[in-house]
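Our preliminary data section would be incomplete without showing what the modeling component actually yields. Below, a chain of 271 amino acids is followed by its predicted structure, encoded as tokens that our downstream tools consume directly.
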Amino acid sequence: MAFKQITESESHYRHLEKMPVAEILANMNAEDKTVPAAIEKVIPQIEQLVHVIVDKMLMGGRLFYIGAGTSGRLGIVDASECPPSYGVPYGLVIGIIAGGNKAITEAVEFAEDDTVQAWIDLQAHSANEKDVVVGVAASGTTPYVIEALNKCRENNIVTGSICCNPDAPLSVASDHAIEVIVGPEFVTGSTRMKSGTAQKLILNMISTSVMIQLGRVEDNKMVNMQLTNDKLVDRGVKMLMEKISLDDYEAAKALLLKTGSVKKAIESYHS
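Predicted structure:
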């Protein structure tokens, strides 16, 4: 059976330019509602990948996301949010995009078609067999991402993938493939829409569950978050007051700022 790119299939909607704005928004929202149901079908595959990542991290490994265009940007967003949210070191979760940093804000022509640069980009971070590399590509056909996983396999690096087409070439190159089938986009081929939403949700699920398994969350609180602004300091103070049953806001704030995190403040208070 020939590989079919559902992500390139014709939209269920026609003559979008003639639709009233309210109808455009309602139809987009109707399509977006189908995404969580598609993700629900692949939770077992997501779970399997999470366990692999946790095991590797406990042995000193890292998590890489590698992608092009929207998929690459989503990986960078998820990776960049882990240190402030969970207090892990920068470099534990790394996002790589075809075309380099310039491609975060601008399209870099033909970067996704480069089958050599991906491994060079991974080696710039000394990717090795301790790590896990997750390729993210809505179509599942992006040469840059596929070749990244092929090179990882040659070098005994465990791989995962997230795409939105069944039986995609990217899945073949991956040890732990996640294929979330969201169907045709509202605007034909615009995979920054449902496909991008699905990828973002799955990336959230992966990084959040990994951090919980690594002990970076207690109860339902980000007790290791970085105190990078007044909002987070206030949140941390209130967490700390609740955890140690302290009524004095200023005393809790002083302890929090001295120790640098809610978890360390709790440990200091009880020491």
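Residues 6-213 form a domain with the Rossmann fold fold (CATH 3.40.50.10490). Residues 194-213 form the longest helix (20 residues). Preliminary results of this kind motivate Aim 1 of the renewal.
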